[in-house]
Write a structure and sequence with these properties.
With 458 residues, this protein is α/β, with parallel strands linked by helices. It contains 23 helices and ten strands. The strands form three sheets. Strands 8-7-6-9-10 form a five-stranded parallel sheet. Strands 1-4-5 form a three-stranded antiparallel sheet, with no helix packed on it. It has a two-stranded antiparallel ribbon with strand order 2-3.
Length: 458
């Protein structure tokens, strides 16, 4: 018998058994098809579950769950503090966590043009950590690494630039299936393309995941207050995901209908969160069910190379967030002010989400101030598309477009492993829809079917 205490946001799932038939959980797989992640404790099997975040669970010698009780519950207990105090408290906490996690180690830092890794870079410089940074851009895509390189240069830390090539997935897909257990669709972890090289850059990764959720406040529309479940569905269901889930539900001849089943599951989870403030409640929902089962899954790609640390996942950071007024969390204010306070030069570098503006003038990221930039970048994409390969904006474009990619994709979709789980007619329907209809909409269903194919093969 053993007792396991899970973190508020676990880095990796812990699996355990429950008393149930060893059968496929088709309903759970339908939710995975719709959203791209398994919900709550779901797995592919009815007799296997994932331990809940922030719980203390007792497991017997055979691996079965005996009992599980929460040691932490998300709450909203705002203190009467202003922005300056919030930034000061964040600064002390964040830099303490970063120092504890990285002290004496050679740190590998993925850099982007956003705020999470930028704040990490500033903090790592502040605590005098040894750092090697890197970033990557898509082949024929936006040069995201260009902003990252400027940040690294400003902080005087080494930087390596990678290009994620077309079709990189196929030589890595079997390995990826083993690493993430097929609990995430395969077109997302682009770091897989250069994972072997990344692991040689240092002794541990410092990753900025989930900072954008903790340090922002969703502006929920009025209708969200009246129908929270409809709003949740809109947030978590991917384009094309609902159609695929309904198709699988019918293919497996499950009782009732998928949407009613999903709504009942979401309602139970939503009502269990004892928070009245809607934005804080949504953050808690995401942190309970989205972060551990979607964001965390592909951290295994990094962890396969070197240990990982995540300052925004730290229990103390989650507890701190529960006490900060939503008004101070809105619009990334705390992170922005932290970077401006600690390193004004880094704050003057373009913020990718608000380009061409930076952390001092991002408020101008609206018409008419950003109109000239949008026209110029549009013209550049058109010209580049005429002179060379089309502009790449999304992961799946590297994997599914072009003859070689198509041949590899079909070899996995039209095999006996997948068609033993899903009818060949259903597979062909979504393949043809992607080829002949809306590729943006049907890329997600195709990616899920590819993932299921690898899972069946495993």
């Amino acid at each position: 018998m053993k007792t396991i205490k899970t973190n508020i946001i676990p880095v990796q799932p812990t699996f355990a058994k429950v008393k149930a038939p060893h059968e496929l959980d088709y309903e759970a797989i339908c939710i995975f098809a719709a959203t791209g992640f398994f919900l709550d404790q779901d797995t592919y099997w009815k007799d296997e579950k994932v331990l809940r975040p922030g719980h203390t669970t007792t497991i017997d010698d055979e691996g079965y769950i005996i009992n599980s009780t929460p040691w932490f519950k998300w709450h909203y207990s705002p203190r009467n503090i202003d922005l300056n105090q919030a930034v000061t408290e964040f600064t002390n906490l964040f830099e303490t966590i970063v120092k504890e996690q990285t002290q004496g180690k050679q740190v590998i830092l993925p850099l982007s043009g956003g705020l999470d890794s930028r704040s990490q870079a500033v903090a790592l410089k502040q605590v005098k950590a040894k750092v090697c940074s890197y970033s990557y851009s898509y082949q024929n895509g936006y040069d995201e690494a260009g902003i990252s390189q400027k940040i690294a240069k400003c902080l005087d830390i080494p930087f390596i630039k990678y290009t994620i090539p077309k079709g990189y997935l196929w030589s890595k897909i079997e390995q990826l299936a083993t690493i993430n257990g097929c609990y995430s669709e395969f077109t997302h972890p682009r770091q897989m393309a250069v994972a072997d090289e990344l692991g040689q850059l240092g002794e541990l990764f410092s990753l900025g995941h989930w900072g954008d959720v903790l340090f922002d406040a969703d502006e929920l529309p009025d209708e969200a207050n009246e129908n929270s479940i409809a709003y949740l569905k809109k947030k978590i269901i991917k384009k094309g995901g609902l159609a695929l889930a309904n198709s699988l539900w019918n293919n497996w001849q499950l009782e009732g209908d998928f949407e009613t089943y999903l709504e009942k599951r979401l309602l139970i989870l939503w009502q269990a969160i004892d928070i009245q403030q809607k934005s804080a409640k949504l953050r808690a929902f995401k942190s309970l069910y989205w972060a551990p089962r979607w964001t965390s899954v592909n951290l295994a790609v990094f962890e396969n190379e070197q240990p990982v640390t995540l300052p925004y996942y730290d229990d103390r950071m989650c507890e701190f967030i529960c006490t900060v007024p939503e008004a101070l969390l809105a619009n990334r204010q705390i992170q922005i002010e932290y970077i401006k306070k600690r390193n004004p030069k880094v704050a003057k570098i373009v913020w990718q989400d608000k380009r061409p503006f930076n952390l001092y003038n991002y408020h101008r990221h609206k018409f008419p101030y950003n109109f000239p930039y949008r026209v110029i970048t549009k013209l550049q994409r058109v010209i580049n598309g005429m002179l060379k390969a089309p502009h790449v904006q999304r992961n799946w474009e590297l994997q599914f477009l072009g003859q070689n990619n198509d041949d590899m994709l079909k070899s996995y979709l039209y095999n006996s492993e997948l068609t033993s789980l899903v009818s060949k007619g259903l597979v062909n329907h979504y393949y043809q829809a992607f080829k002949n209809k809306d590729q943006v909409v049907f890329s997600h269903p195709l990616s899920i079917l590819l993932t299921l194919s690898l899972w069946c093969k495993k």
